[in-house]
Sequence to fold (101 residues):
Amino acid sequence: MKRIVALLVLALAPVAAAAADVAEGRKLIEQNHCETCHHNKTLGDAKAIYLRKDRRVTSMEKLVSQVSVCNSELKLQLFPDDEEHIVAYLNDTYYHFPAKK
Ligand code: HEC
Fold:
């Protein structure tokens, strides 16, 4: 059993190491209808939630955790990689925090 787990970890490792992908992030946001819910909240256009004056996300750390919160709320069960792509897209498009690492 241990051996099978180790093999699985090895098989998945290259995927987990892939760099965050902005285009992939945009696709994920569309596919998962993130913005339907945000639209209900802001009653404005989909982008308004990211750009509102009293927005929550004021740092890269907060962006990462907010994406995670919304992911669990939706029960999307996105992989950590998917969250990374989404974070990359949102940062590239709206927030422009200095890159991590
Ligand atoms: C169940 C409804 C819902 C869904 C679905 C949802 N969100 Fe959200 N999201 C919210 C609400 C509500 C807020 C505002 C939280 C607040 O102001 O306290 C928010 C805020 C955010 C913010 C922070 C905006 C700011 O203030 O700067 C980000 C980033 C975000 N969501 C990303 C996502 C992503 C990515 C998805 C899809 C994977 C998603 N959300 C799906 C409800 C949702």
